[in-house]
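can u pls check wat happens w/ zinc ion
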Amino acid sequence: MTTAMANEELLARIKEDELVRLCQDMVRIKTVNPPGNERENADYIAAYLRKIGLEVEILSHTDTRATVVARLKGSGEKPGLLYSGHLDVVPVGAQEWLHDPFGGEVIEGKLWGRGASDMKGGNAAIMVAAKVLAEAKVPLKGDLILNFNAGEEGEQLGANAAAAHLAGERVQAVVIAEPSSNDVYIAEKGAFWLELTTYGKTAHGSTPHLGQNAIMMMVSLLSEFDRLAVPYQEHPLLGGFTRSINTITGGVKTNVVPDLCTVTVDQRTVPGQDHRAILRQVEDLISDLSGKIPGFKASVKVINDRIPVASDPEETVVQRFFDVVGEVSGKRPEPKGVAYYTDAVSLVPALKAPLIICGPGEARLAHQPNEYVEVARLVESAKILTLAAARLLT
Ligand SMILES: [Zn+2]
């Protein structure tokens, strides 16, 4: 199936109206997380994939939440390929939208709605790619595995279940159709978020000497914390480690000495950094300050822990995927990375395969009001995913 002629025949099977209908149907299924309610969308995808002859399994999380794992069987001569997406979307937000966020309206080549970009458009492209390969009866030497996860925007409920379900499976790559405007990202930063709390003793605001001020303890802690040198090596695709103190709460009333102050810290890590070592550094700082400042008491808690993931740009599978994108879009990608995290955090360690992020959505529209996906990009994405599977699995 690698001849130009065969490619043309295969790609001619991709129908724009079907892609649009799938994406519209799924935008209209509300999967706002929290609470998620992904089961209805999971059932919709399962029905579509069963109809075209795939083996489909539903991984059930709760009555209302589920994840899909499906397979287009190959002969087993080659390792498979995983195409993955997530079913949940972020809330609509307070701002008024130009179009109904759950309407899926198509206006001047754009399909509007929450999740159109992130990432029901990508899911629709994956589904159509599988359908084209199944209907054309392309003789696959490896399995094309499809996975649609609940709970990506938060706890990675579905990806953890799918990773456990698929652990040890031989795949050439983990391809995630998150919004990239059909460009390719092969690395993502880790996230290691901390909550720091200081504990004081309350007293009337007019007699501060009788209390211990948790906010002033936090001032001492943060000034030292901000100065800690965190070791890392600049990554060629991801850059460096970042840290930002982004929330602070403390105190209840102007005339009461605060006994509690809490901040949360967003840290983004790069390959080679050990999250445990970063935590130990903060714990050591707290115990050091406890010895220096009378009455100082503080704690640190990890509130989000996702490892960084990076593929080697020279990996054959990555280069071949770049070739396909270049053929379809006319622009061969350069290796790049992203600062956000995806379900790769769970899937890549379980499958031990390179990560490729490539999807039709606009990355800059993710989590924004007035989200849309361009219909032309949906078609282009289905072409990329169809051709990449045909190349890598035959
Ligand atoms: Zn996403």
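The chain has ten helices and 16 strands.
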